Amino acid sequence: MRPVYAISGGVSKFNKARPDKTFQAIVKEAYDYAVADIGLDFPTITRLVDGSVASYFSDHFTRQLMAGIMVQDYLGLCPKPSHRVEGGGATGGLCFQEAWKSIASGMMDVCVAYGFEIMSHVETWKGNEFIALASDVSFDYPVGGFYSGYYAMMVTRHMKEFGTTVEQMAAVSVKNHLNAYFNPYAQKRNRYTIQDVRNAPMVAWPLTRLEICVMSDGAAVTLLASEEGIRKLEANGAQVPRPLVRVTGIGRGTDAMRMADRPHVDFDDFLTNYATEQEKASDETRLYYKTLWEKGTRYPGVHSFRAGRTAGNMAYKMADIHEPLTELDFVELHDAYTSSEIQTYEDLGLCRYGEGGPFALSGKTFMPGIDYGLDLPNQPECPVNPSGGLIACGHPVGATGLMQGVFAIWQLQGTIAKHFNSDTLQITNARRGAIHSHAGTGTYVTVSILERED
Amino acid sequence: MTKLKSQRDETLGGYVVHNLPFPVQITPETLQILKKLAPISIEQEYKITYLHSYGQDSPWFAALSNRRLLACKDQQHGYTYANPRGHDMYSGQETEWIDITDREARVHAFTVCHFGSEEFLPETPYVLVLIEFTGVNTLLLSRLMGVDPLQANLNWIGMKVLPRFIRLSKLKPTDVFFIPA
Which residues share a beta bridge with A53? Predict the structure, then answer.
């Protein structure tokens, strides 16, 4: 496979509603930004792009089938090849990886990955109903289909087994909302306290309204290219920033649609098939897990996502990452809920299973230089969701995974100040980051590693 | 103190309008003004009734309507699913039906939904539970009745529960629910 570079990106403003434009025109906002950022004009990029991948989750929200081709048309990319990908909340992450494949396989030299979602055309609770249709409509949805409810069940189990507290979850909300304060693309930019989070209206116990991502209208675009693609672009006037950002690892995992059907595997199975390289190598960690299993923990159960662990392990292996917490400079992960950010810390091996709660309040995942109003015992080590994540940026489903890609590109290019009009969220000397996209109750998960190539 | 509402509820519906303001004279200047106007939004209704087949899972619903709770078991290895599943995920073999109505059951995880999808909003607050059964490898999503939803407590996890069946079956998974034992 050939090296693949993420050379540019653009994000539309995420808002609760964007009635000012149709979805095609909102995607074009993000596309125009990505194209202008490498100094090209519309006719030139149109000539040089080999094809695209379209990302959007739902046909219900806009009551429009084949919306992807309408974007392809609007962007002037017909008759170039394209296809749509769909995998719930991970649609954007899948799209990014499909574009990667197009380049890595040699099928294309320049590929556009575009994603969008328009969620405002139905009322919030109807929107929740549409999203809940991404659970088994024979067995799950009719019982009271509600994704916040599904995730709340996961976290009550996490709390019971591991002692995770609502304050630890609320700290995630405080962090992500305040990070977003410095991100002009974010939908919710606020300073909250843990008490504010806990006092917000209860949605699904113990998750409050400030711990759940919001519905959003928005779009995001990334441009991926091979070395040959970059040469072609630059020969036509493009200014591709150096050092280049290369996609060095991709991984994917899956799990059962019905959360109730997830297995509860024994210790040996966990250690053989799911433990990270780092966990397997540590006597102390193996003993820690043995003790958990003796107390009744089984994997993944409903408290963990083996799809996320599988995706992470796969991507780390490809990118030659052995200790994610120290070898990643940041992670943009799918925090649809504060609780799922904590679950994902564990899946991605940033901490051990069962330790996500204390890890959330340790300070290791916070940004340096920002006063969160929290007493954090540790220095920042690997900021998680420096952009504000889904909780604060919004979650226009098909755009979300690509939005993470764009923010990761800008971090690694060192251009956050240029795009955010503030360098507060720029991670100093960021060399390697991960983006994590997640669907359903953990049904599809993607992890992609991006690195600055010095 | 209860927070007082500061906004009226937004609802769809309204007057039927048959014409909108538009320049009477078409000139380059008036056409240019069109780019500065607010967007038009219309209501579109979409209703459909599906004839949804439960296929090979149908006996599970038939059992509920007869006050029995079935599960599916792989005969070779014994792996047992609380939800119906025609074929085992490990052996690929066809599963067999077993009756678990009287198995010991406990709450594995729960939540109280204070909001919900539009269809379930009138039922809030309601309690969702994942039920674990003795000798069954997977869980069952259901509703828990007989607890105060405003007194949610982690101690509900591990609580013994019993299945109950509605008298007039709707042929839905909610034909069964659970109560504290």
Answer: A83, A113
Domain for residue A181, yes or no?
Answer: no
Q: Which has the closest alpha carbon to A57: A13, A11, A102, A91?
A: A91
ipTM above 0.90, yes or no: yes
B104 within some domain: yes
Assigned domain for B171 exists:
yes
Number of domains making up chain A: 2
**Residues of A at the B interface (Cβ-Cβ below 8 Å)?**
19-21, 63, 123, 125-126, 128-129, 131-132, 137-140, 142-146, 148-150, 152-154, 156-157, 159-160, 201-207, 258-264, 302
pTM for the model:
0.96
Exposure pattern of B81-116 as b/e (b: 16+ CB <10 Å)? Answer: bbbbbeebeeeeeebeeeebbebebbbbbbbbbbbb
Cα A230 from Cα B130, distance rounded (Å):
52
Does the beta carbon of B11 lie under 8 angstroms from any beta carbon of chain A? no
What is the CATH number for A353? 3.40.47.10
Å from A303 to nearest chain B CA? 9
Of A143, A148, A205, the CB nearest to B143: A143
Contact B97, B59 (CB under 8 A): yes
For A321-366, the pLDDT digits (tens) are 999 999 999 999 999 999 999 999 999 999 999 999 999 999 999 9
Q: How far is CA A132 from CA A64, A88, A257, B3, B116, in A?
A: 19, 11, 12, 29, 10
Of A20, A259, A302, Cβ closest to residue B39:
A20
pLDDT at B1 over 70: no
Using the beta-carbon criterion (under 8 Å), do A302 and B108 form an inter-chain contact? yes
Q: Looking at chain B from residue 47 to 76, which residues have their Cβ under 8 Å from any Cβ of chain A?
A: 52, 54, 57
For residue B4, report the phi and psi dihedrals to the nearest 5 degrees.
-80, 145
The domain of A80 spans: 5-122+215-245
The 10 Å Cβ neighbour count of residue A281 is 12
Question: CA-to-CA distance for B105 and B102, rounded, in angstroms?
Answer: 8
CB-defined contacts A:B, below 8 A: 137
* Residue B3's pLDDT band (cuts 50, 70, 90): confident
A19-56 tens-digit pLDDT? 999 999 999 999 999 999 999 999 999 999 999 999 99
User: Which of A395, A122, A63 lies closest to B10, judged by CA?
Assistant: A122
Mutate to test the interface with A, among B40, B56, B115, B151 (most CBs of A within 10 A): B115
Examine the pLDDT at A389 and tell me if it is beyond 80. yes
Look at residue A141 and tell me if it is in a domain: no
Joined together, the tokens standing for residue A208 give 């409050």
